[in-house]
């Protein structure tokens, strides 16, 4: 499948942002962010190119990126089929790139040993305190099991962490998601291009691998998908691809019961994609880029994980990291504002650009909200994920009805009314988003229809010109045929004259003293007289 094994090739286009505002499409010109910093970004939910001075990293895709202490660390990737092993750092304070020369750890310990990290792509980079973990990935050298590497920015050293238990097999294009004090590895592409859908959990405290048996129907084997954690309990898997197709399905795994399910999705219908990137902002899961065998995906989507409603944040037409396959997406918060940063990727060419989006998303069900519900004697619980209600979490009955007082009941009723109001508002917002999506699709169809009408008219004009030309050619052919008939008639008459003239000369005899021409002359008149 092209979106998995090789980059998609997109048509070159000039960057253009299309944003939804009051259900209207508004074109926004590119505006670069300079050294004033990320705080200079005024507009919300618009992708803006970030101008970073200094030497840029080598263009790449399928790399890893993680934010640690106001810096974005980029490791590895693929460029023209060549694996990369460099570490590039984007400092958010100075807005400048720098390249780190990683060293071998000088002293080994019980838990770690020094290592030279091989270039790789399709790996996962996870922040862990003040360090960065790198898991899995494709390399030139064959390895049997998945390794866990750690990079220390303070000492600029790599080390391989010693793990216990049965390690997962080596792979690339997997997802690695942090849930509490564990890392959950799902799927990917193993040796011989074999696709996987196995699940492995690494306990970060004991560094022990566990392979859990799950119930329900898991996602089909895939790679280049996206994964997210919700409420430190649920693992969500979206999209990805096999060797023949791309997916747009959504799966949910309850890490307490280890049961897979396919919850009902609401809002817009996401297009199938693989190679996309995702990051969570509170209860919202933002998805950018990716592609399928037909095209790349220009929309930046968001899934409200508490209601399972999809919506469009913005749409970016053109070659850029937010619309590319194999780009990275990280979240950085400064002065209370959340910024998304998209780097690299492939969209017909390899990119080393950085785009930034200041998001207006806010948590729809924050931890403080959950604490408030628990304080009021109400408990969030898992909803029937396959039901038509949609939300993952609902509020169940009071834990102990016997201890309820009148004031508590009144408070509960008020909260119930508020919840119902919120549900109505969410449904209304969902209908607005769906209406916006339908209007956008209708506008696209009308534009395509107008283009096809122009092409049809052009073809009709060409056919008319060809018909006129054919008619003229027919007239010319008819005229030529008439001339040919006349020439044939003249040729027959000429042959007749020649034959008659030859016969008259023979009859005149050799002893005649008359001129040859007079014989013919008298013959003509002699025939008339007789």
Task: Please characterize this protein's 3D structure.
The structure is a single chain. This protein has 4 helices and 31 strands. A hairpin with a 2-residue loop joins strand 5 (71-79) and strand 6 (82-91). With 530 residues, the protein is α+β, with helices and mostly antiparallel strands. The chain has helices spanning 2-5, 367-375, 406-507, 516-529, and strands at 16-21, 24-28, 48-49, 64-67, 71-79, 82-91, 96-100, 103-104, 112-114, 124-128, 131-135, 148-152, 157-161, 175-179, 182-189, 195-203, 208-210, 226-230, 234-238, 250-254, 259-261, 266-267, 277-281, 284-288, 299-304, 309-317, 328-334, 337-343, 354-359, 380-382, 393-395. The N and C termini lie far apart (100 Å). Strands 1, 2, 22, 23, 24, 25 and 26 form a 7-stranded mixed beta sheet that branches. Strands 8, 9, 10, 11, 12 and 13 form a 6-stranded mixed beta sheet that branches. A 4-stranded antiparallel beta sheet has the order 3-29-28-27, with no helix packed on it. Residues 497-530 are annotated as: Disordered. It holds the Pfam family Kelch_KLHDC2_KLHL20_DRC7. Keywords: Kelch repeat, Repeat. One of its GO terms (molecular function) is fatty-acyl-CoA binding. Residues 411-501 form the Acyl-CoA-binding domain.
Please bin the fraction of helical residues. Answer: 10-25%
Please compute the radius of gyration using only Cα atoms: 39 Å
**Low-pLDDT residue intervals, each spanning 5 or more residues:** 1-35, 365-406, 510-530
Query: How many β strands by DSSP?
Result: 31
Query: Strand content of the residues, in percent?
Result: 25-35%
For the termini, the CA-CA separation is 100 Å
Oligomer: single chain
Shape: elongated
Structural class: alpha+beta
The main sheet comes to: 7 strands, mixed
Give the rounded overall mean pLDDT: 80
Number of helices: 4
